[in-house]
Amino acid sequence: MTGSPENNMNNVADEVNQMEADYGKNFKIIPPNDQIKELQTILRDKNTSRSDFKFYADRLIRLVIEESLNQLPYSDCSVITPTGAIYDGLKYRSGNCGVSIVRSGEAMEKGLRECCRSIRIGKILVESDAETHEAKVVYARFPDDISKRQVLLMYPIMSTGNTVVQAVNVLKEHGVPEQCIILSNLFCTPIAAKMIINHFPEMKILTSEIHNIGPNHFGQKYFG
C-alpha cells in the first residue's frame, strides 16, 4: 500500500535533507516533487524516443539551471516603474559565465541561454586514456577575465567524478576561486558526490538526484 501524496513528499523531503546533511552545506538537491520524479523516470526509460528524451531533458535542465542561478550573488537595487513609483528589488552582480564540459554538458547551454540571454559560455573537453582510463583535459576555452567571474559549470551525469575533478582543476589554474564555481548537474552517484566534495569542499554542487546508477546513455541519446 502506498501512502498519501503528502506523506510521500514529506518522506522524499526528509531523504533530501539527510543527503544534504551527509554531503555538506554546499551540496544541494533541487526541491523534489512529482513533476521532477516523472522527468527523471522518462529519461531513464529505455522505451523513451529520442525526440521525447530531448524534450523532457530540456525541461529538467531548465529546472536545474534556474535553481543554480539562485546560488549566484545578488545586489540590492531600486528601479522606477512606468507609473513613477520606486521598486526595491535585486539584480545579479556583474561577472557571471557558464562553462560546459563537452560533450554532454553542451546539452545544458540552451537552458542557460534561455535564462540569461547574453551570458558568455566557455568549454572544456576532458577525455579518458584508452589504456589507463585516466581523465585529462585536452581543450579549454574561457572568457579572458574568467578569474573575476562566477562560473556555472555544466555537466549532466556524474558517475565517478573524475571528469569534473579535472575540469575544476583547469578552472582553478585559470584563477577561478573554488567558492566561485557552481556545478550544475542532473544525476549524481554517491561515489561521485563524495569525490567532488572531498576535492573541492568550497565549491557549490546542485543536482536533481543522487542514485547509485546514473543514466549514462544521456549524451548519446540527447545528441543522437
How would you describe this structure to a colleague?
This protein has 224 residues and is of the alpha/beta class. The protein has seven helices and twelve strands. It has helices at residues 5-23, 34-44, 50-69, 109-115, 162-173, 190-199, 218-223, and strands at 27-29, 74-80, 86-92, 96-102, 120-128, 135-141, 150-154, 157-158, 181-184, 187-188, 204-207, 209-210. It has a seven-stranded mixed β-sheet with strand order 1-11-9-7-4-5-6, sandwiched between helices. A three-stranded parallel β-sheet has the order 8-10-12. A two-stranded antiparallel ribbon has the order 2-3. Helix 4 links the parallel strand 4 (96-102) and strand 5. Helix 2 crosses helix 3 (50-69). The longest helix has 20 residues, at 50-69. The radius of gyration is 18 Å and the shape is globular. The termini are far apart. The mean pLDDT is 90.
Give the structure's gist in a few sentences.
Helices cover about 40% and strands about 25% of the residues. With about 220 residues, it is an alpha/beta fold.
Count every beta strand, where a strand is a DSSP E run of 2 or more residues: 12
| Poorly predicted parts | none
Beta-strand proportion: 25-35%
Largest sheet: 7 strands, mixed
What's the alpha carbon Rg, rounded to whole Å?
18 Å
**How would the global form be characterised?**
globular
Query: Structural class of the helices, strands and pairings?
Result: alpha/beta
Measured between the Cα atoms of the first and last residue, the distance is: 40 Å
| Percent in helix | 25-40%
Series of H and E elements: HEHHEEEHEEEEHEEHEEH
Strand order, sheet with most strands: 1-11-9-7-4-5-6
> What does the average pLDDT come to?
90
Specify the number of helices. Answer: 7
